[in-house]
UniProtKB/TrEMBL annotation:
Organism: Streptosporangium pseudovulgare
Record-given protein name: HTH cro/C1-type domain-containing protein
Region (Disordered): 19-40
CDD domains, per the entry: HTH_XRE
Domain named HTH cro/C1-type: residues: 122-176
Composition bias, Basic and acidic residues: 26-40
Length: 387
């Protein structure tokens, strides 16, 4: 038997066509390879999924049962899929690539809000520590490719990898506890983010998501949308909504809101579509001068090619937006939409497909009942005269 050697080469790859490895079948002593049989012949499998296969893959976590199935067909079913999945997991583990190998699909699961938040925080902490990705690799042995994937929410860091990064960044106390909790819950969809003691932190998760989005659809029933507010209007809103906030806290909120508006000034700006109930424009916030400046600013912003402003007039009657304001953040090919709802209890993030579909349908209804952009500008101009 030992003199008769025959090999069969097979290839594995993921859904994106980038992950390649090899497996070799040869007839030899079954005690050296395992009790696999082809008819009456003992078959030894010399199994190999190379490190380069994982490193060169565009999506290393996609070494899945689907890829194994392709391998099995190439190798005429001689390799057990559970071995390939196990070996792939071992290789991923050696490289510090977190998360379990999916047995269901070769398609990468889109990042959750929690995972996006964890990625953004780790990126911020590294930058604040003044470390490059190469510096981190020297300190933690986490290679730069893995670190890039973690910081862009393409993969969930393993616990030991996260601990190594937090140690390198000098993160301790409650911040460390919060980040470890995020890692544990990173795959859960939907999130109610409660109010933080440090008021601006309440918005940190949303701000991070908004900065990554390609488009935002914002419906507001009571306020002018935050990205279109003047500084004086924003200050009056914060003082009115948070009557117990200190002056420093108010200014922190206002500063954060003004910085957010930089998204509309980028070389590739955020595409913003706002739908506003007329009630928000008729309410005098601050004083007449502040409202006049705010309405004038709204007209000016509406002229920009990447900003659309529509108003739902009182004459439209009841409409689907009356239950409350919301924002739909769209990420294009980078992931599914995220729905953000700001409430007295905190920030609510919705990620389920049914929720996304429902809110997109609501957006379509609101856009249909609202005035056209030109008629909206005319209405706002007429309201401006009242101030």
């Amino acid at each position: 038997m030992g003199a008769r050697r025959r090999s069969h080469e097979g290839t594995t790859w993921d859904a994106a066509g980038g992950c390649r490895g090899s497996c070799r079948l040869s007839r030899t002593d079954p005690e050296r390879g395992g009790p696999f049989r082809e008819g009456r012949s003992s078959v030894r499998l010399t199994r190999e999924i190379t490190d380069s296969a994982i490193r060169n893959a565009p999506d290393p976590e996609s070494l899945t049962l689907r890829a194994c199935t392709i391998t099995l067909s190439k190798c005429k079913g001689y390799i057990r899929s559970d071995y390939i999945v196990q070996k792939g997991a071992e290789m991923r583990d050696e490289q510090g690539i977190g998360g379990s190998v999916s047995r269901l699909s070769g398609r990468r699961q889109p990042p959750t809000v929690r995972l996006r938040r964890l990625a953004a925080e780790l990126r911020r902490l590294r930058q604040e520590a003044g470390l490059s990705q190469d510096d981190v690799m020297e300190k933690t042995n986490v290679n730069s490719v893995t670190l890039y994937r973690i910081e862009t929410a393409r993969t969930k860091p393993q616990l030991r990898t996260l601990i190594a990064l937090l140690d390198a960044y000098g993160v301790t106390g409650s911040e460390r506890v919060d980040l470890l909790a995020l890692q544990k819950e990173a795959k859960q969809r939907g999130w109610l983010h409660g109010l933080e003691a440090d008021l601006p932190d309440k918005y940190s998760t949303y701000i991070g998501l908004e900065a990554e989005a390609q488009k935002a659809i914002n419906y507001e029933s009571l306020f002018v949308p935050g990205l279109l507010q003047t500084e004086d209007y924003a200050r009056s809103v914060v003082r009115g909504v948070l009557p117990t906030a200190t002056e420093a806290e108010v200014e922190s909120f206002v500063t954060a809101r003004m910085q957010r508006q930089g998204l509309l000034e980028n070389e590739t700006p955020l595409r913003l579509w706002t739908i506003i109930d007329q009630a928000a424009l008729c309410r005098t916030v601050g004083n007449h001068a502040i409202m006049r400046d705010q309405l004038t600013h709204l007209i000016q912003q509406a002229q920009r090619p990447h900003v659309t402003v529509q108003v739902i007039p009182f004459s439209a009657g009841a409409h689907p937006g009356m239950p409350g304001s919301f924002i739909v953040l769209k990420f294009g090919t980078d992931g599914p939409d995220v729905i953000h709802i700001d409430s007295m209890a905190g920030d609510l993030f919705l990620e389920k497909e049914t929720d996304i579909q429902r809110y997109n349908q609501i957006c379509e209804h609101l856009q249909a009942v609202a005035l056209s952009p030109n008629d909206t500008t005319a209405l706002i101009a007429s309201l401006c005269k009242d101030h």
